[in-house]
Each structure stands twice: as structure tokens, then as C-alpha cells.
Amino acid sequence: MNAFDERFLTRNGLAARQLAVLLLNHEPDTRLPRVRDYAEELGCGNGTVQAALQLLEESGAIRTTARGHLGTFLAHSDRSILWRLSGLGTLLAAMPLPYSRRYEGLATGLRGAFEKAGAPFAITFMRGAGARTAALLEGKVDLVVLSRFAADELIAEHPVELVADLGPATYVGAHGMLLRHGVDLDTPGLRVAVDHASEDLRMLVDRVFAGRPDVRRLEASYMQLPDLFAREEVDATVWNLDEVQDRLGFGVDVLPLGDEVTRELSLRNSSAAVIGRTEGAKALAAVRDSLDLSLITSLQREVLEGTRLPSY
Prior knowledge:
Elements (H helix, E strand, L loop, with lengths): L2 H5 L3 H13 L6 E2 L3 H8 L3 H14 L2 E5 L5 E6 L1 H8 L4 E5 L5 H17 L3 E5 L3 H9 L5 E5 H10 L2 E6 L9 E6 L10 E4 L4 H10 L7 E4 L5 H6 L5 E5 H4 L7 E4 L4 H11 L1 E6 L3 H10 L2 H13 L7
Parallel strand pairs: 4-5, 4-6, 9-10, 9-11
Antiparallel strand pairs: 1-3, 2-3, 6-13, 7-13, 8-11, 8-12
Helix pairs in contact: 2-4, 2-5, 3-4, 6-14, 9-12
């Protein structure tokens, strides 16, 4: 262990690591809190805070400048060094399987934005918002990506927080009604495929077929849809059109969704959201303040347009 590392194992070094977490939330050319404010927050003396700031300067993590009565300003920060010193580690995000170009673009955008922010980042792919949420609540992952609609439901029920909302058409392009050619939507006993691993799709099916007790729901995944329709084992479903593009053949009609309520629900389903556990508040704040959301969406758009190869 070198001398640099040993200094960060001292009392002053511990304070420096705690300050590194706080400084991740500061942009260059912004005024820093007073030393005594940091001392109160960290529960240490003013001298310890001053020594900690000096350690961070010597490590190249920050550079500060005094502006007289205006206070001390952060002139420069190296977020990669701050993140390493903070001890927050590599952030693991769970995403849907990258079976659509839109998801590949989203993964590419997230990786690019985290790299720009200087935060170590890795992606794992898991099918189903329920599975991703369970992994988050169990502490197996730090962040999950899902629709804004599913995120709102989870935030209301669990100790999780919204980190980012990327806006419409970042999660899916559109949802639509898939109907087997020649089948009347009003046919009694209509067989409707539904993927209970996807809270979004389950809720959409419930809304579209509300008031239809005759409807028979059959469990299915998007990978099974072409075969199920071809064998005439299902008649209809509501699905993410990104997933079924060019896969269903001529025997399936795509219809628009119905009333205004359903369209509004579908719009919220189209927005990608990133959430994390509330107990990781410091890490969440660092992520929330450092991510360039416009970079995520621009990289995703380039992948969708074919001007950038997916890279995640």
C-alpha cells in the first residue's frame, strides 16, 4: 500500500472520503459550504475538515479557490477520483433484455453518461420489472431501469426513489393491440396473451379489456407470440411494438389502443425511469446530480437511427 493510500486510512483520510461523497454533488465554479458546516455534518472538528480538503487537493480530486468574503469555490473536480475515494464502488444497473434497438440504445446511452460522470458502472439484463425490482430491494443491484408507470407504482409501495426520468419514447416506442387476422375483437371468450412478468403490460391488458369477464388470459412471453398466433392459440394481446416488429408475419393485425385513459397510460409506459433504494441516498444524490440525461437520449437516438453502433 503506497503513502497516498495510507493517508486516506487516517482520521483525516476518513473525513476526506466522506467529503468526496458530498463533493460529487458540486459543479465547478460553485461556492462550497463553510468549513464549520462540513464539520457539523460530518461530526468532526474544523481542523479535520481543513486537513481533509487539503488531502483531496493533493490527490488531484479537487482544486479550490478563495474569493474573499464570497467564500471558497470549487474551481475543478475530477469525478473519477472523487468517486473512487468515496467508496461508493461500481454501480450495477438492471435493465430489460436488449432484444430491441431501443433498449440497446438506452444501454449505450446509460453507459456513455456514467462514463462521462466518472462513475464506475455495469449493466445486468433481467427479464421482467418484477424480477428487477426484487433484485433492487434485496440489494443485488443498485439501480433498475423500467417504465415511469412501473416506477411510480413501486415508489408508492417500497423504499425506492426516482433517480431519472428520460421522457417519452425512451423505454418503448409505442404499445398497440395485436389481433389475429380474421378475429373479431368482440368475440366471446377471446383468448388474450399476457406476460405477468411485466407489470406494464399486465396493467395495459387490464385497462383495455376492463368490463370483459369473458376474456381468457393466457400466460405468454414476447418470444412465444409468433408461434402462439401462428398456431391460433391466442387471439389478441397488448404489447410493446418494439419487441414484435418484423416478427409476427401477415396473420396478425396491429391496432391502435383505445380511449384517452389508455393512451395516457401507454405514454407513461413509454418513458424510461431509473430508480434506486432510498437507503443509498448519498449514492443516489451523486448519480442524480452527475448524469447528463440529454447525453443518454442523444446516444439512444443515434443507435435508433443507425448512426452509432450499440456499445454497452
